[in-house]
Design a protein that fits this description.
Blueprint (H helix, E strand, L loop, with lengths): L9 E6 L6 H10 L3 E5 L1 H6 L7 H4 L4 E4 L10 H4 L2 E9 L1 H9 L5 H12 L2 E6 L6 E4 L4 E4 L3 H11 L4 E4 L2 H14 L10
Parallel strand pairs: 1-2, 1-4, 2-3, 4-5, 5-8
Antiparallel strand pairs: 6-7
Helix pairs in contact: 5-6, 5-7
Length: 191
């Protein structure tokens, strides 16, 4: 899909089972023009744990959930005009599956199909530092990612048309560059 078709196009934003900077990632998504959310089953489970309700999210986004074995919502990549797929935040499980070509969840299926369609991908990988402090539903947790998580992030970085980011500011910077390339702008208000 060419960027020339982008002004009428949409962002596809996939949510996984990660709570790492989840509210902050959704705040970034809300500032973008024309965003649809695609939720894995795990994302639907964790959203309420972080005080995020689907009925409230539907006020700002079209939402598609994974209720089928074949990830039927992936078909929207073929029928709608999506110029960018964002997976943010992405669990180490999602990163590993994407890096190894496994597509058995809605986000990983979307990643595979977006790549095959030439749709730009942006993945906010969570396990990218030797020590990761993350906000779990009830408390902060300190994690120490393993070498395999770092290796999978590196594998994913090698994919054509895929940007891997490691922080909310980096996500915003890559999206800002993407908006400029598409001749689009951030929403003026996030209310």
């Amino acid at each position: 899909m060419s960027d020339a078709a982008a002004p009428g196009g949409r962002f596809a934003w996939a949510l996984t089972g990660s709570g790492h900077f989840l509210p902050e990632s959704l705040a970034v998504a809300q500032r973008l023009p024309r965003v649809d959310l695609f939720l894995s089953a795990a994302a639907e489970e964790i959203l309420p744990m972080y005080g995020l309700r689907l009925d409230v999210l539907r006020e700002n986004f079209r939402i598609f959930t994974d209720r089928s074995a074949s990830a039927v919502p992936v078909g929207f990549l073929y029928h709608e005009r999506y110029h960018t797929l964002v997976i943010a935040p992405a669990t180490s499980n999602t990163v590993a599956k994407c890096a190894l070509g496994i597509s058995d969840t809605l986000p990983t299926n979307m990643f595979a199909q977006a790549g095959k369609l030439g749709i730009q991908g942006i993945v906010f990988a969570c396990d990218t530092e030797p020590v990761v402090i993350t906000q779990a539903p009830r408390e902060e947790v300190t994690l120490r990612p393993r070498r395999i998580e770092f290796d999978n992030v590196q594998r994913l970085r090698a994919f054509d048309g895929c940007s891997v980011v490691c922080s909310v500011p980096e996500l915003e910077a890559v999206l800002d560059a993407r908006l400029r390339a598409l001749h689009l702008a951030w929403n003026a208000s996030s209310s």
